[in-house]
Design a protein that fits this description.
Blueprint: H1 2-19, H2 22-27, H3 35-46, E1 50-52, E2 58-60, H4 70-88, H5 99-120, H6 127-132, E3 137-141, H7 147-155, E4 160-165, H8 168-179, E5 187-191, E6 203-207, H9 215-228, E7 229-239, H10 248-261, H11 268-277, E8 281-286, E9 292-297, H12 303-306
Parallel strand pairs: 3-4, 3-6, 4-5, 6-7
Antiparallel strand pairs: 1-2, 7-9, 8-9
The structure holds S-adenosylmethionine.
Residues 95, 105-106, 109, 141-142, 144-148, 164-167, 170, 193-195, 212-213, 217 line the site of S-adenosylmethionine.
């Protein structure tokens, strides 16, 4: 109990240092200026977040996508703290309205998008070729701030994306962000649930994160996305499941977060069963630390032409 509360103190110190100039000075190798900054840093050294090099220079001990940008780090941690506070007061918000939280989730999505572009897409025949030749249409379910659609449109010139979301707040942030981006004109944002998607054979790639969708939306969504994909094209679905070698605390944290986010924990096996029930074939997976990616294909031969 006492240890956990100390960790809250450490997290608070990290957010303060990030939000008030100290973290930027650490990254630049400059000395901290105020007594409170130095006290925050001492706590972070003792907690193993920072380490002191020869000559007293401070540096982060490990790598994290948020560390490079103090603003991101501050917003991300404050959002996590607020979410913990909402949970503590039994006020979990399945569709977040807190702009810091929406932005923090978008930032987390940027690193996922790079994994998608660099490690996953090369494994997906047909879809890969359409992305490479710039003719693909990408469906981003739960587009949030638009980070994934933006990264893919930047990496694959010419492709177009449609982003669906039920959150007016997230879509407003996405609209503002994308207006300032060079790929904004290639991304269409729609306030629409995936359960209301009625297009057929319109997309070459779909992304639908299970952790954010309640079970009924997920199951209906899989049917809709299957119909909306072109034959031979792929859905990539992150699934909330801990890696087989994760610690008990890591597993409990993944399952807890999945429940709070709305989708609940789900095994890769169950995800595969749901995908096959929706008509997908060639189900594959790529196990990750906190979430695993499941890839599934719409058959290259449509049921009608095969009959
Ligand atoms: C937090 S975002 C994920 C981050 C996002 N990739 C980004 O770049 O910011 C997940 C979104 O799924 C949305 N969502 C939940 N249920 C949905 C549904 N049935 N259809 C479409 N979007 C949904 C939520 O409103 C939320 O904004």
């Amino acid at each position: 109990m006492i240890d956990s509360l100390r960790q809250v103190q450490v997290v608070g110190a990290l957010a303060r240092l990030a939000g008030h100039g100290g973290w930027a000075r650490v990254l630049a190798g400059q000395p901290l200026e105020t007594e409170l900054d130095r006290a925050d840093a001492r706590l972070l050294v003792a907690a193993g977040v920072l380490r002191e090099r020869d000559g007293g220079r401070l540096e982060p001990v490990d790598l994290h996508p948020w560390y490079d940008d103090p603003q991101t780090l501050a917003c991300g941690i404050v959002a996590e703290l607020r979410r913990a506070l909402m949970h503590a007061t039994d006020c979990d918000d399945l569709i977040p309205a807190d702009p810091d939280e929406i932005v923090a989730m978008g930032i987390a999505s940027r690193s996922v998008a790079s994994i998608l572009a660099d490690a996953v897409l090369p494994m997906l025949p047909v879809t890969r070729d359409r992305l490479d030749d710039g003719t693909a249409r990408f469906l981003d379910v739960g587009v949030g701030t638009g980070a994934i659609a933006q990264v893919l449109c930047e990496e694959f010139p010419g492709i177009e994306a449609v982003g669906l979301d039920v959150s007016v707040d997230a879509l407003a942030i996405a609209k503002e962000r994308l207006a300032g981006s060079r790929v904004g004109e290639r991304i269409e944002l729609r306030q629409q649930s995936v359960t209301e998607l009625h297009e057929e054979c319109a997309y070459d790639l779909a992304w639908m994160p299970q952790i954010f969708l309640c079970r009924t939306d997920l199951e209906q969504g899989l049917d809709r996305v299957h119909t909306a994909l072109k034959p031979g094209c792929w859905l990539v679905m992150p699934v909330a499941t801990g890696a087989s070698d994760c610690t008990e605390l890591e597993r409990a944290a993944v399952e807890h977060e999945a429940l709070v986010r709305g989708g609940g924990p789900m095994s890769v096996e169950l995800a595969g069963d749901l995908l096959r029930q929706a008509g997908f074939t060639e189900v594959r997976d790529m196990l990750g630390v906190a979430q695993s990616l499941v890839m599934a294909r719409k058959s290259p031969v449509s049921a009608v032409s095969a009959a």
